Model the fold of this input.
Amino acid sequence: MRYNVQILNFTKLVTDKVDYHSLAFKVELGKVADLNSSKSLRILLETLIGGGALKIVVDLKSLEQIDSSAIGIIINATKLIRHNKGDMVLMNVSPDIDPIFKVVSLHRFIKIFSFESDVVDYFRVV
Done:
């Protein structure tokens, strides 16, 4: 599966050293997040976190279908990044996907935002 990854910068870069406290990585999922694509999602998120990322936003604007394996990957990646004193959030959850997240009470574990500006505001204080 192909993912779109962007870097959101919260402050002006003044050195060549990467400051992971002032960066967030935005990962945009495709239309389907299921057992077939979960392995690549897990590898991507674990690589970002293992590389030092402290702030990740998973953009679900294109997502039409998700299964328990992908939800498990998101939960485990969130636990991993929080262990490193970071956080991961979700953005743009569609009305079709939201009921699935409510059944598993995902909103109690992971913050969900509708707008990128709200994500940026949240990550400025995290």
The mean pLDDT is 92.
